[in-house]
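We were asked to recover a plausible sequence for a given structure. The inputs and outputs are reproduced exactly as logged, with field labels preserved.

PROBLEM: sequence recovery
POSITIONS: 676
GIVEN STRUCTURE:
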């Protein structure tokens, strides 16, 4: 076999798109939630119904913002915080029956916590009947502890105090007692600074002009999925089912019309019909599933396992194992309708016939597209993805009708079209492992740890590279007597990518594919782990240590259930470059806002005009973040001096190591100028 470097065949100008799908998909998974300000997605209101001298019903209503959910009353201990409602009842008032929610919570498998959990969305109310024995009016205190999450982040566990009056008799003023004991020790006040020491809990004010811009996590994936869909449409053009139909269909329109103007108009309508057909398919998928179901596709282990099997079937089909075809009577029936119909209706049926006939090639691409669009967790994802796909598929039919001379320059159908299908088959198999990994992590099988996943990818891309060089041949492949220049470079890309993955077998971060590979904690053997550095889990102790050792403080507000926090740790903090800077220059204080360890003495604070009880360590650190920095989302990083003054603006979720290092260096420089 010899290497042919003469000329550059036109058909290979678009072949680099074969790897575009994977690059865009990887980038599309890396949008994280970050930003400043207080997230307050759940609000509570207390009211009384059926109030009389002898009984009343207390109703608590939670309003939950779209995309968020409130956890139910009985979650597993190792999961997020359950909703807990405690009534502080005075003498003369007692509970009458259990607390009753207005509806049952939704039960789902939550990939964020790897547990079967239940929650409410939209709104939910809780009813509690009480008996009044002395025919007086009493004040009942209500303590509500809760936590809310969406598919990207959680707010820290929060406790609110509410009050209602029950009974219609004379009002009484007396100390309430707790019917369900929550704390049995005196309640302490929030930390107060000594007069001769700086107030380390004092709020920090940031200028809006200095604050980093918040990532638009809602809009960005739309552009990604559109481009990804457009790339998928271009790939579909290169398949044996679609490519030969371009000159046939355009020539038909040019010969059929009485004038070129009419033929061009018909061809443009034909292209628009293709867009309408595929866009309608995307909208249908959106309407059938809805927003909540689409979210399940990205978090439910069973769905991910189904996606894995689906993509494996698609991959085998593209490799030549079998053809995925719709019943022939469907396409025959549609073709017959196109012949009988006239005008725009006939053109539409011709476009529909194309969609059915080409399904064996476009089906796997469409399936993969819809899977990825659905896992974006966005209601309009499938519609936008299919719109991009249809636009790319329809463009050549319209363009070649406008410029018919281009038809003469189109490369003829041949074995290269089959090669496109085989390459797509390899990519489908590689992509399928991502979904198997999600299911594996969810069920705790441990069969697809990071090393195993990377091994499979290395083998797949090595085989793809060898296939492009002609070293591997399938039964339906034509003989390859030479390697074209574009084919050589595509092979070079695939083989180089396989070699890039190899260090990951020993723990290299592989940031470029971090959206695909399993997390670093599944790595059994890691030679690349960053240097260990001392970190504190108590704010006041860490600040005291920093003052004694004259070092700036790096605060890391994190959470056990914070997925983006784990991503930052693996992709940024575990790298040698960042870990060495932190180890040599900072005192790291990591505060887990969902730590359920009980405080030795609960704290009562006033926040937004309400009294809030802090019962757990996580409550305390969450309050610190809200009170001092005016934020409650994680991850949240900031550099302080010994007085608790900010040396930097906050840093949110962003895996750009250069950017994070620059931010750390800014903190070091500012601290050197103002250590106290």
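RECOVERED SEQUENCE:
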């Amino acid at each position: 076999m010899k290497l042919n470097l003469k000329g550059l065949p036109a058909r290979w100008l678009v072949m680099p798109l074969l790897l575009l799908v994977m690059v865009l998909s990887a980038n599309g998974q890396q949008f994280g939630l970050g930003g400043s300000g207080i997230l307050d997605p759940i609000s509570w209101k207390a009211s009384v119904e059926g109030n009389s001298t002898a009984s009343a019903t207390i109703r608590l209503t939670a309003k939950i913002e779209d995309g968020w959910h409130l956890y139910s009353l009985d979650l597993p201990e190792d999961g997020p915080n359950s909703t807990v409602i405690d009534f502080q009842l005075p003498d003369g008032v007692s509970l009458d029956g259990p607390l009753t929610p207005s509806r049952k919570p939704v039960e789902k498998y939550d990939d964020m916590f790897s547990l079967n959990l239940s929650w409410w969305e939209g709104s939910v109310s809780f009813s509690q009947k009480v008996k009044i024995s002395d025919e007086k009016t009493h004040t009942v205190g209500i303590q509500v502890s809760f936590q809310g999450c969406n598919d990207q982040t959680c707010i820290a566990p929060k406790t609110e105090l509410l009050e209602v009056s029950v009974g219609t008799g004379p009002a009484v003023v007396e100390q309430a007692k707790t019917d369900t004991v929550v704390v049995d020790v005196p309640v302490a006040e929030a930390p107060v600074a000594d007069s001769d020491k700086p107030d380390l809990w004092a709020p920090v004010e940031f200028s809006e002009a200095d604050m980093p811009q918040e990532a638009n996590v809602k809009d960005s994936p739309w552009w990604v999925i559109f481009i990804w869909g457009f790339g998928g449409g271009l790939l579909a053009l290169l398949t044996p089912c679609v490519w030969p139909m371009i000159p046939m269909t355009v020539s038909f329109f040019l010969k059929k019309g009485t004038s070129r103007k009419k033929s061009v108009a018909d061809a443009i309508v034909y292209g628009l019909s293709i867009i309408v057909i595929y866009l309608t398919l995307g909208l249908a998928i959106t309407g059938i599933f809805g927003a909540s179901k689409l979210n399940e596709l990205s978090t439910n282990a069973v769905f991910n396992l189904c996606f894995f099997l689906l993509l494996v079937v698609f991959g085998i089909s593209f490799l030549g194992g079998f053809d995925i075809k719709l019943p022939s009577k469907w396409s025959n029936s549609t073709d017959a309708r196109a012949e009988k119909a006239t005008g725009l209706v006939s053109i539409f049926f011709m476009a529909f016939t194309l969609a059915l006939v080409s399904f064996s090639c476009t089906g796997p691409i469409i399936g993969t597209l819809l899977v990825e669009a659905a896992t974006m967790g966005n209601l309009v994802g499938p519609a936008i993805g299919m719109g991009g796909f249809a636009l790319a598929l329809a463009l050549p039919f319209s363009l070649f009708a406008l410029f018919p001379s281009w038809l003469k320059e189109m490369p003829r159908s041949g074995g290269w079209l089959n090669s496109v299908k085989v390459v797509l088959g390899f990519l489908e198999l590689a992509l399928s492992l991502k979904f198997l990994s999600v299911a594996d992590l969810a069920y705790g099988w441990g069969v697809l740890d990071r090393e195993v996943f990377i091994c499979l990818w290395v083998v797949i891309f090595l085989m793809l590279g060898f296939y492009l060089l002609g070293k591997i041949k399938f039964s339906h492949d034509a003989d390859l007597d030479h390697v074209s220049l574009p084919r050589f470079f595509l092979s070079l890309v695939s083989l180089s990518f396989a070699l890039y993955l190899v260090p990951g077998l020993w723990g290299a971060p592989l940031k470029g594919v971090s959206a695909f590979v399993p997390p670093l904690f599944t790595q059994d053997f890691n030679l690349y782990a960053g240097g260990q550095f001392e970190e504190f889990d108590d704010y006041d102790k860490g600040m005291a240590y920093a003052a004694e050792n004259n070092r700036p403080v790096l605060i890391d507000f994190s959470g056990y259930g914070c997925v983006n926090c784990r991503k930052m740790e693996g992709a940024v903090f575990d790298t040698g470059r960042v870990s060495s800077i932190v180890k040599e220059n900072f005192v790291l204080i990591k505060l887990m806002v969902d730590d359920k360890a009980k405080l030795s003495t609960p704290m009562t604070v006033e926040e937004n005009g309400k009294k809030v009880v802090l019962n757990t360590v996580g409550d305390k650190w969450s309050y610190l973040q809200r009170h001092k920095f005016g934020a409650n989302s994680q991850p949240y990083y900031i550099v302080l001096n010994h007085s608790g003054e900010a040396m930097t603006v906050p840093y949110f979720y962003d895996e750009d190591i250069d950017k994070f290092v620059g931010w750390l260096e800014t903190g070091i420089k500012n601290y050197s100028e103002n250590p106290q």
